[in-house]
Design goal:
The chain is mainly alpha-helical. The chain folds into 3 domains: 58 residues, no CATH class; 90 residues, DNA polymerase, domain 1; 209 residues, hpI Integrase, Chain A (Orthogonal Bundle), CATH 1.10.443.10. It contains 14 helices and 8 strands. The strands form 3 sheets. The protein has a 3-stranded antiparallel β-sheet, with helices on one face. A hairpin with a 5-residue loop joins strand 6 and strand 7. Helix 2 packs across helix 5, helix 6 packs across helix 10 and helix 7 packs antiparallel against helix 9. Keywords: DNA integration, DNA recombination, DNA-binding.
Length: 392
């Protein structure tokens, strides 16, 4: 829709002006009108409008919108939050709040250039190991602006991604224990917590002898444990909601749903702890007769804090290092998962497929590329085995 009118200037000259509707602003939903004056003839005015509307048909919304990156982000996140789990959304919101919006948020998105994007990405490369992930999330907003035809080209698509140089791995980079270190930790746990914190004893035993994730163990309920068959059902995990509160969610992938088989000693330790847990919680005034009872509750019979096992583990390591000349290197509860998978591979008793199923990873390549560390002892044995084989 367009209108053409003739007007006079103060000196009596006659010119033509046009007014036309270009589109609906994708951010505000309002119809946007444009006008231009100064044409000598109506024909010139009509040709100009025809060009503008043709360009609109080819490229979409052409208003010089004042929308900032933050404006488009607000529009994008409303749709994005309906496509992911709360835990993922919580992580993404944090990444935008901490890294991305401070860098891009105030800029008008149509004015952001490739040079600006390159400079920001280079800064992320210098400061953060997960700079690629930050860049990919930042790019989602540019893609949204392109989808809405607020911009014609995505400047982030032309960024040259920096590459981290591969570094030689040192022993300190291996956040897992060998067999002797694991045995020392389990023995020290029994010594340090035995009789006064059986919850920690059972928890670390499960982490060390199943390869399960900490969040999976903390989500266990009494119904998930079958002492007779010595099995443990993994079908949920502790995660965080949009308000950063702990809650129960589903495993990351379909492979996360699995049944773990326990050795007799581990099954006995867990069964003993469950009996102790019922008594302790009864003393605190809680009825734990339900099959939905948490196996590792806090003192309020709610989910145990995700950071509590880390504090318990640090205390055991500190205790060991104070009692012994030889120090036990510091790893996290997740390092016990690395330890289990590493020792399982080193033992040559399980196939990679069996290890993958027990660990709940979605791809065999994840096991091989991420967890297939080799301990010092195994490295030395490899050389001896090769020399023995070739015979000279």
């Amino acid at each position: 829709m367009a209108s053409f009118t003739q007007y006079k200037t103060k000196d009596g000259s006659k010119f033509w002006r046009c007014q036309y509707t270009i589109a609906t602003d994708p951010l505000t939903g309002k119809r946007t009108k444009r006008q231009k004056r100064g044409f000598k003839t109506r024909k010139e005015c009509e040709i100009y409008v025809a060009h503008q509307l043709a360009d609109l048909d080819n490229h979409g919304f052409k208003e010089d919108t004042n929308a900032t990156y933050k404006d488009v982000y607000d529009s994008f996140i409303e749709s994005y939050r309906k496509t992911v789990k709360e835990s993922t959304l919580n992580h993404v919101l944090g990444m935008f709040r901490i890294h991305i919006l401070p860098a891009f948020g105030k800029y008008k998105i149509k004015k952001i250039t490739v040079t600006t994007c390159q400079k920001i990405v280079n800064g992320w490369y210098d400061d953060f190991s997960d700079y690629k992930k930050i860049k990919n999330y930042a790019n989602l907003v540019f893609k949204e602006a392109r989808r809405l035809s607020i911009i014609y080209e995505n400047p982030m698509d032309l960024v040259i991604m920096p590459k981290k140089k591969a570094k030689i791995q040192s022993d300190d980079d291996n956040k897992f224990w060998d067999k002797n270190e694991l045995q020392a930790f389990i023995n020290q746990t029994n010594k340090y917590y035995g009789g006064r914190n059986e919850k920690a004893v059972a928890l670390f035993r499960l982490l060390a002898f199943t390869g399960a994730r900490k969040a999976e163990i903390l989500a266990l309920q009494v119904a998930d444990f079958d002492y007779k068959d010595k099995t443990l059902l993994i079908n949920k995990t502790v995660t965080r909601d949009i308000d950063n509160h702990q809650t129960i969610g589903t495993p990351k992938t379909i492979n996360g749903y699995r049944t773990l088989h326990l050795d007799q000693n581990t099954a006995d330790i867990l069964n003993h702890w469950i009996s102790t847990m019922h008594k302790e919680m009864f003393m605190l005034g809680y009825n734990t007769g339900s099959r939905n009872q948490w196996i590792f509750p806090n003192t309020h019979n709610q989910l145990l804090s995700m950071m509590k096992p880390n504090k318990w583990m640090d205390a055991v390591i500190d205790s060991y290092n104070n009692d012994n000349k030889k120090r036990l290197k510091r790893i996290t509860p997740h390092g016990l998962r690395h330890t289990w998978i590493t020792l399982a591979i080193e033992s040559n008793q399980l196939t990679i497929k069996q290890i993958q199923k027990q660990a709940g990873d979605s791809d065999v390549s994840v096991i091989l590329s991420t967890y297939a560390h080799v301990t010092k002892q195994a490295t030395e044995e490899t050389i001896d085995k090769f020399t023995s084989y070739v015979g000279f």
